[in-house]
């Protein structure tokens, strides 16, 4: 049976072990519960909080993802030949980062969890077949 790739699991904010259960309590743009990680996976029961303050380290990932987004905006501006005015570059990067920061934070936590929790094919099969 085919399973989601790690990249799809990270981008769709799924459980790192079964790649099917929701990782966050709500959509990242729901600001009252912004980027709040669930206690357990609703599908396989994995405890998401391995240790206290586990997701603090995702700030390092968040920095890298933010820089990647800024570089991508700059490249897009360069393709459309809009890099004459530094103010336009600054405002475009700032605007994009403000609009995407909830998702960047969520994806960073997902990347962090996927770095430490391995995918388990047997559990994913059980979840898919409804045996778990
Ligand atoms: Zn799971």
UniProtKB/TrEMBL annotation:
Q: Highest taxon of the source? A: Bacteria
Tell me the keywords, alphabetical order. Membrane, Transmembrane, Transmembrane helix
Q: Mind telling me which Pfam families this protein's record contains?
A: DUF983 (PF06170)
Give TM regions: 60-80, 87-106
Q: What is this protein called?
A: DUF983 domain-containing protein
Q: What organism is the protein native to?
A: Nonlabens spongiae
């Amino acid at each position: 049976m085919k399973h989601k790739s790690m990249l799809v699991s990270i981008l769709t904010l799924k459980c790192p072990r079964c790649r099917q259960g929701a990782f966050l309590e709500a959509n990242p743009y729901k600001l009252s519960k912004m980027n709040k990680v669930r206690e357990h996976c609703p599908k396989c029961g994995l405890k998401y909080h391995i240790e206290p303050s586990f997701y603090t380290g995702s700030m390092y990932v968040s920095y890298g993802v933010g820089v990647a987004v800024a570089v991508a905006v700059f490249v897009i501006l360069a393709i459309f030949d809009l890099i004459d005015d530094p103010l336009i570059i600054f405002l475009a990067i700032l605007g994009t980062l403000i609009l995407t920061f909830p998702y960047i934070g969520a994806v960073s936590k997902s990347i962090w969890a996927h770095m430490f929790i391995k995918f388990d094919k047997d559990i994913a099969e059980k979840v898919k077949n409804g045996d778990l």
